[in-house]
Amino acid sequence: MKHLKARLQQRLEKREQAQWMRTVRKAQSPMGREIHIENQQFLNFSSNDYLGFANHPQIRQATIDAIAQYGVGGGASHIICGHSEPHHHLERKIAELLDRDDALLFSTGFMANLAVMTSLLERKDAVFQDRWNHASLIDGGLAQPGSFVRFKHNDMTDLQAKLESTPARHRIICADSVFSMDGDICDTQGLVSQAQAYDALLYLDDAHGIGVLGDSGLGIIDHAKLSQEELPLIVLTLGKALGCAGALVVGEKTLIETIRQYGRSYIYTTASPPAIAAGVSKALDLLAESPGTRQHLSALIHYFIDKATACGLPLMPSPTPIQPLLLGSEEAALSCQTFLERKGILATAIRPPTVPVGSCRVRLTLTASHTFADIDYLLASVSQWLEANE
Ligand SMILES: Cc1ncc(COP(=O)(O)O)c(C=O)c1O
Question: What are the pLDDT digits (tens) for 344-361?
Answer without folding.
Answer: 999 999 999 999 999 999
